[in-house]
Amino acid sequence: MESRKLQHWRLYLLSLVLGIGGSFQYGIQVSVIASPAVHIQSFVNQTWLLRYGSPVDDATNQLIWSFIVAVLSLGAWAGAIHSGSLPVTYGRKKALLFNNVVAVVAALIMLFSRTAQSFEMILLGRFLYGYNVGLGLSVHLMYLGECSPKKLRGVMTLTGSIFIGFGKVAGQIIGIKELMGTEDMWPYLLAISGIPAILQFVALLFFPETPRYLYIDKGDVEASKKALQWLRQQDNLTLELEDMQKERESTQGEKAKTVRDVLSYRGVRWQLLTLVIPCAGVQLCGINALHFYAFDIFRESGVPEEQMHYLSIGLGATELITVTLCSFLIDRAGRKKLMGYGYLLMGVTMCALTVTLSIKHLYSWIPYVNIGLIFCVICIYGLGPSGVSMALPADLFLQAWRPSAYVVSGSVNWLCMFLVGMLFAYVVNGLGQFCFLIFVAYTFLSAAFLITFVPETKGKTMIEIMEDFNKLNFKKKDGKRTDVDLATMF
Questions:
Q1: What is the SS3 string spanning the chain?
Q2: Which among 12, 25, 110, 217 could bridge 190 via Cys, Cβ 3.0 to 4.6 Å?
Q3: Cβ distance 378 to 287 under 8 Å?
Q4: What is the pLDDT along the chain (490 residues), one digit of tens a residue?
Q5: What share of the chain is helix, strand, coil (3-state, %, to 5)?
Q6: Could you tell me how far CA 75 lies from the centroid of its own chain?
């Protein structure tokens, strides 16, 4: 058993390299922007005063700040769109190398923004960071999923969620005022993502292109075999090579599919629904609303204002720990159960939280119950939806469909994040604590969809998973046609 674990040490090292420059960047960019908010708004005001001779009004300053926060999502959407073409044309490895150059350029722009007296440079830097995150997250999961054997595919792709949680906690820690959350240090804080980008760029030079890309997309059997041998450290690779050969034959030499193909072809309709409703739409499960309300609940419970940031680190650490625990469960319990019942439990807990928030003034102990419910929701989110939403998309599509599927997934994810970021404040002002009921409806819908319709994917090859989905895609069609043909032909 020990020798079998050591056999894959290069794959584990690859997951570390991909995580640091991939989903880690997403986590750190989401969290790191919060602590220097006051300093950045002050910088915008000073810059405006130097240019126009008068301070910026509060409404304009708030609008500029909102765009600084939200433009990350628009950049990520642009990156997600290119994740369907760059990895296909140049390969997964070269796409990531290019992506790291984008992050380094963004870091330099952030670093010199104060010297140049330009808050527009912060906007541009955030957009480029977003592009880096959108492209990097998709290619990270694509690269890792195509390098992993089927028995480890769930655990390996789940490392994407682990590094997101790690990035969030890292961003919260380095953003405290004792480290880099000061007026003098904020440009360096915003430029911090250049370091993981440089580390990944250098480390990736020593790793091969993905075996599946070399075999299926490029038809280079020898290069694919060498890459597999390097990753697995063994010569007996017959089963994996046969699996890739079957997938290559099933595509019948077809080129990579377009986004239009993914959206219009019946043969991947249920995979697309699975990708969009529970996976890409994970932004709509209410986790951001929970973080927003957490500070009000902590304040009502008597937590001092200066301690709020440390409690937010506790929330991030809780998510990181539970996502890590999910990696031990995903290939035992399966994707379907963890995500489906996870959404169901999240919905039930948020219903309870809505009730207790409505009666919080009746008893002095209710705010402490609310704190417990917040941590419960985050634990459930980490154990189920957060982790599985990263692992499941890698299981759903054959090679020719996968890049465009990630474009769709990324587009839905980032557009939802942008809309939640721009509109959530208005929803809270209008509905108060009852805003959670919107997210409850989404979680119940996703849970019903997953539990009722989606087949389990753990421990199955891509072809076997496609055959399961074809029973849904073509259940009214002539059953004599082969599942593989139905999955790939127009």
A1: CHHHHHHCHHHHHHHHHHHHHCHHHHHHHHHHCCCCHHHHHHHHHHHHHHHHCCCCCHHHHHHHHHHHHHHHHHHHHHHHHHCCCHHHHHCHHHHHHHHHHHHHHHHHHHHCCCCCCCHHHHHHHHHHHHHHHHHHHHHHHHHHHHHCCCCCHHHHHHHHHHHHHHHHHHHHHHCCCCCCCCCCCHHHHHCCCHHHHHHHHHHHCCCCCCHHHHHHHCCCHHHHHHHHHHHHCCCCCHHHHHHHHHHHHHHCCCCCCCHHHHHHCHHHHHHHHHHHHHHHHHHHHCHHHHHHHHHHHHHHCCCCHHHHHHHHHHHHHHHHHHHHHHHHHHHHHCHHHHHHHHHHHHHHHHHHHHHHHHCCCCCCCHHHHHHHHHHHHHHHHHHCHHHHHHHCHHHHCCCCCHHHHHHHHHHHHHHHHHHHHHHHHHHHHHHHHHHHHHHHHHHHHHHHHHHHCCCCCCCCCHHHHHHHHHHHHCCCCCCCCCHHHHHHCC
A2: 110
A3: yes
A4: 445 556 788 899 999 999 999 999 999 998 888 888 889 999 999 999 999 888 888 888 878 888 888 899 899 999 989 988 899 889 999 999 999 999 999 999 999 999 999 999 999 999 999 999 999 988 998 898 888 887 787 778 788 888 988 998 999 899 888 889 888 999 999 999 999 999 999 999 999 999 989 988 888 889 989 998 898 887 777 788 888 888 777 766 566 678 888 888 888 888 888 888 877 667 788 887 777 667 767 776 677 777 777 888 888 899 899 988 888 887 788 888 888 999 999 999 999 989 988 888 888 888 888 888 989 999 999 888 887 887 767 778 877 787 888 788 888 888 888 887 777 767 777 887 788 888 899 999 999 998 988 888 877 777 888 888 888 888 765 444 444 443 443 3
A5: 80, 0, 20
A6: 14
